[in-house]
Sequence to fold (257 residues):
Amino acid sequence: MKSLRWLKATLLATASCLAVGVLSPTMAGTFDNAEVNEDNFIAVAAPFGEGKYQLLIIEQRSNQRACWQESGSSPTVVDPLLLNFDFTGICGRSTDSNGYSMRMSGQDLGLDYLLRIVERNGELLLVGTNRMNRRAPEVILGRSGGVSQGNFHKIVLEPNWRLTRRTYQGKALGHLYLTSDTAAPVTPGVSTTPPPLPPAVTREAEPSKPAREFIFTKPDDEPTAPSVEVPTIEVPAGGSQTLPPPPSDRTVPVLGN
Fold:
């Protein structure tokens, strides 16, 4: 039930944050940060879905009521009490990149790194992953020290990390930084040079073959028709010549009376 109520509250908070808009690179360079009392904040791995977690940062803004309660160690289980009452003016919460981001050596890395909760080696880790370059080294910001399935876990920040608040021209804003004074990791460049082509296969030269000789004979200007001899028949003077009947290869039978 707590996870369900938390999911509904998270969806409402995300929708309201999206209306603010996305931070531009120009604006990111104009922000500064200010120190906060870290006792008033807690970083939490909040469960959602099956075996998944997301970063939640809770702030205690008033002493009227407690916003969370801790129990145990390695891991420390967190009870998000603010889900049980109207926490307006009492508690603050940051649920996504609109509410928090990384800052290293004075540089806002909100547009470069995505903050995620991942489970590894029996604990939950808060890591920063480069959004564009998968070859960039991952940054570990905190850890839970163990896993208690289905519960909210306290994330203990690494010694070189702390929480600060974003400021603009000296005015404090609601956005929080996970801050380190160390320089951002060097990002390996992405090579755009295509890989070399494989060496060309050299075919052995075939033995030379004798050239074929073509002989063309010039044709005669005009073909000569073959000569045909026509036999002559002598006819006696003053008489007629009776020619013999042409031979016949058929015999006509003679019928008797």
User: Anything to note?
Assistant: The first helix runs from residue 2 to 18. The two ends are 137 Å apart (CA to CA).
